[in-house]
Write a structure and sequence with these properties.
alpha/beta, Aminopeptidase, Alpha-Beta Plaits, 2 domains, binds ligand BES, binds manganese (II) ion
Length: 456
């Protein structure tokens, strides 16, 4: 019955998502604050339209949180669905083949910023609720927490969880904001990496200098910064920050063997990215490098003259944004401190350095032995016809660790995106098949979960 309802409402489900994708809810850009607020209103309205008893906009120090719920019986289990309505900036705009906020459907995919991350995936949950309510098959209670600051570090969400423990009372958190291997090899991520994000500033002379008059006699901060950055990986691509690996949980050989059983083809991977050779920490496979090993990445580097033509200048300053992905049991704040100490220690006397910390988040591993994972695995088997493979994801969702720490709740990461969906990149897209499969699979999760919980 649910399947028939979804089939009959496919066009409506698509049109509604496209409407949401037209709102440029870019959380990082304050010029879009009014759009972001408008998007929260649209999410609230969609929750009420889908059949929530109540929905509200909860103001925070930043962008608002949308909360909604449908309680059918307080004695039944409650699923807390988390998602985010904010999106990454669409830049660089000239690489998009259609406008980032003018969604188009092409070759069976929806192209728009947020199509996959996370409006498309979040909206599957809203439409699943509608389908369950319309077919009288909602088997347990549901609460929604849809935030507007995930892409900027969720810095106000922790306080919201602390202040609303009763309201957010639930049995499990369900999230669709991760990827699966492919539609032919469905998978469930059972871990996320943490994050420590730093910005550095290197200052040489007190002002920009003529590179001929002074060049050769005064340290160029760009050269110094480049050398400092280059020294942060050794010849085996290990990170050289002292004590960086101290808390890294090493997997045993059985766990590593299991992890490497997931389908992965290195030639296809290289071909897709048009790189001749993979890169990474010696002694680990590509799946291990992105799943269970920490990394240090440059996200941006600038300084001096970058405009049109040539300008001869020895700049006063150089900058970089550097992030580290973390794995259990590394701690974001400790890694940030180790980075700062090391960065200052390797600076030569010819420059001054300043290190600041941006947002961070802790790594998580989600259980595969509870009812919720079993319910999700069975739901995927029922809708895809194949058992999902557990994988370790490389991305980060900082709030997941806080759901456990503050609310005592475990999470299931039932994501339907693909790594090839270009999230955070031009031409982000989401397969229509993924969207509809998600809407079909989520009600199966609810059914399985309610059954497993009430038979326990
Ligand atoms: N949905 C992503 C995280 C993700 C993507 C996890 C794909 C697994 C697979 C999320 O919106 C995101 O982009 N998170 C940021 C961190 C945040 C603090 C900016 C990230 O991972 O860079
Ligand atoms: Mn996301
Ligand atoms: Mn994202």
């Amino acid at each position: 019955m649910i399947k028939a309802y979804i089939e009959q409402n496919k066009q409506k489900f698509l049109d509604e998502l496209l409407e949401l994708l037209r709102i440029p809810s870019v959380s990082a850009d304050s010029r879009h604050n009014a759009d972001t607020a408008r998007c929260a209103e649209a999410v609230k309205a969609s929750l009420l339209a889908a059949g929530c008893d109540s929905a509200e906009i909860c103001p925070t120090g930043g962008h608002p949180i949308v909360f909604g719920q449908k309680i059918i019986d307080p004695n039944l289990p409650t699923v807390l669905t988390y998602g985010h309505y904010d999106v990454q900036p669409p830049d660089p705009l000239d690489l998009w083949t259609s406008g980032p906020f003018d969604p188009v459907v092409k070759d069976g995919k929806i192209y728009a910023r947020g199509a996959c991350d996370d409006k498309g995936q979040m909206y599957m949950h809203v439409k699943s609720l509608e389908a369950m309510i319309q077919t009288n098959s909602l088997p347990c209670n549901i609460k929604f927490i849809i935030e507007g600051e995930e892409e900027v570090g969720s810095s106000n969400l922790g306080a919201f969880l602390e202040a609303n423990k009763e309201k957010l009372k639930a049995d499990i958190v369900l999230v669709s904001d991760t990827s699966m291997i492919s539609m032919d090899s469905p998978s469930i991520e059972t871990g996320l990496r943490g994050l420590a994000y730093m910005e550095v500033e290197v200052t040489g002379p007190n002002r920009d200098l003529h590179s001929g008059v002074y060049g050769g006699a005064v340290a160029n901060p760009i050269t110094i910064l480049a050398k400092m950055i280059a020294s942060m990986h050794d010849e085996n691509n290990h990170i050289t920050i002292p004590n960086f690996y101290n808390d890294v949980l090493e997997l045993n050989s059985q766990e590593r063997t299991d992890l490497n059983k997931a389908p992965f083809n290195l030639d296809d991977y290289k071909k897709d990215l048009q790189v001749n050779e993979e890169w990474g920490e010696k002694g680990f496979t590509t799946l291990e490098r992105t799943g269970i090993r920490p990394t240090l990445e440059l996200n941006g580097i600038w300084g001096g003259y970058t405009g049109e033509g040539a300008k001869t200048v020895l700049p006063s300053k150089a900058f970089a944004k550097i992030s580290m992905r973390l794995v259990p049991n590394q701690k974001s704040s400790e890694i940030a401190k180790l980075f700062e100490k090391h960065f200052i220690s390797i600076a030569p006397p010819s420059v001054k350095v300043k290190v600041t910390e941006h947002h961070g988040g802790e790594p998580v591993v989600t259980p595969t032995d509870g009812e919720a994972y079993k319910a999700a695995a069975l739901a995927i088997e029922q809708s895809f016809g194949k058992k999902p493979i557990p994988t370790r994801g490389g991305g980060s969702i900082p709030i997941i660790a806080l759901f456990e720490k503050i609310l005592g709740l475990k999470t299931v990461l039932m994501g339907f995106g693909l790594d090839s969906d270009n999230i955070h990149s031009p031409n982000e897209h989401y397969g229509l098949a993924n969207y509809y499969k998600g809407i079909e699979t989520i009600p199966l999760f609810f059914k399985n979960y309610a059954q497993l919980k009430t038979n326990q």
